[in-house]
Amino acid sequence: MDNQRRDALKAGGGLGVFGLLAAAGLIKPEMAFAAWNKDAFDAKTMDAALAAIGAGKPADSADVQITAPDIAENGAVVPVGVVSNIANTEYVAIMIEKNPAMLAASFTIPAGTLADVQTRVKMGQTSDVFAVVKAGGKFYVAKKEVKVTLGGCGG
Amino acid sequence: MASPMRIRAASKDGVTEVRVLMSHPMETGQRKNAAGEVIPAHFITELTAKHNDKVVLSAEFGPSVSTNPYLAFKFNGGAKGDKMVVTWVDNKGESRTDEVQIS
Amino acid sequence: MKRKLMAAAIGVTAAFAAPLAFTSEELNFDAYRQMLADGNPAELFEMEGEELWVTARGPKNATLEQCDLGLGPGVVEGAAAQLPRYFADTGKVQDLESRLMHCMETLQGIPSGEIIGGKFRQGERGKLASLVAYVVTHSKGKPIAVDVSHPKMQDMYAMGEKVFFYRTGAMDFSCASCHGEDGKRIRATHLPNITTNKGAAEGWTSWPAYRVSNSQFWTFQHRLWDCFRQQRTAEPVFASDVTIALSVFLAAKSNGYEAQWPGVKR
């Protein structure tokens, strides 16, 4: 079951689609072939996902803070915020350990932008949420558990 | 044709806070329809936010970002009336650009 | 110790991929809901509704800017907090949906039948939902102030109360079966006790809402329709008297409570 799902995911999200669309003139090549990190988004283990973003084994850091509820009423929408107090933070990634693919989103933070981002992610089940941060060429990580429940009929 | 984004950008004490809601299904490619067929993946892959002409944030999304994605971030500077432009591109090559003035 | 037992239980259930068990203390979603309220995707529907309000449409190619929601033609601010109400021009008690439907028909020439016979989130009924999102957003933070002094409002309130306690359907359920006591829930979702004002307000002031489970915006008509469906009884006709009566019952009991519209739900 899981394998089928993952294959479908690959088929749907692959570069093949971009190539076809670009060839058909439907999209501008610079959009289609921008640096979307397919290897990282396809990674099926934390180690592989960390490797794909070049993080290796990031150091635990108390200067990286995750804002997320302790418990989410619906895993389809789980608010996650990351703040890094490490100087010169240039990159932030959000990973969900127990999702079929770990990496949910990544953010490139240019100089002048605060390392303070919020988004919402899908979570298939209760899991640790990881914030991986790059600053001064080094990677740091923090995590927080978010419990996911099933709701009732109408809310 | 993709629906417009809701962008709010407010400047306060030298920091501009930007909040964006995007209208997008963010299909994972893992769900099936009533007929049992897999619904193809359809999700935003990249997003760029510009203050006037300077990129202030770029992001990459995977299919596990929630449907109708939300993004909030802050940058130094930005004055009332400045232009804030957000563009996204999805895995089917569709894109959408919207702009607002910073309030 | 209790925590350890919980952890052990989770380990076992996870092995069978069964839903995890939580204590009722753990099932507190206040922080979760608070985080979603800022940037509620209902805003996307509100935007669409705002556009629809000023767009000339229908056979009469007119906008809705002359629509009277009870506070005068074109007044949207605060209007939803005072609905349902008795309208002299139609001689009827109308909720927001039925009043908007009336405006769409009289001003734009869009037949109400198209909406009544339509499907949720599709066609004109879908557009109506976006208009609802727009209108209710302009009552956010306003106290509910429904005037039940008109005899027709009193009739509707009485009918709504009767329907609330009326047992029907394959399960012999009434609304009160689920919403008549404190402390009830379905799976993780707390069920308000609608026989109390506080409980009624919990429901009335938090719908219409964006539902994260299906990324849809649900009007109160949609919410009520789903209650009937869950009750395993006949589906009510869209904007029919029974639905408006239930809304009058809930809204009147919520008087004085602050509208949280649009809500965001699991």
From TrEMBL, chain A:
A Pfam family (short name) is SoxY
Domain named Ig-like SoxY is located at 52-153
User: Which PROSITE patterns is this protein grouped with?
Assistant: TAT
Write down the NCBIfam families for this protein, in alphabetical order: SoxY_true_GGCGG
The protein in question is named Thiosulfate oxidation carrier protein SoxY
Q: Which organism is it from?
A: Pseudothauera lacus
Automatic annotation (TrEMBL), chain C:
Pfam entry (one): SoxA-TsdA_cyt-c
Keyword annotations? Electron transport, Heme, Iron, Metal-binding, Periplasm, Signal, Transferase, Transport
- Top-tier EC class: transferase
Q: How is the cofactor bound?
A: Binds 2 heme groups per subunit.
Span of the signal peptide = 1-17
Q: Which residues form the Cytochrome c domain?
A: 155-266
Q: What protein does this entry describe?
A: SoxAX cytochrome complex subunit A
Q: What does UniProt list as this organism's lineage? A: Bacteria, Pseudomonadati, Pseudomonadota, Betaproteobacteria, Rhodocyclales
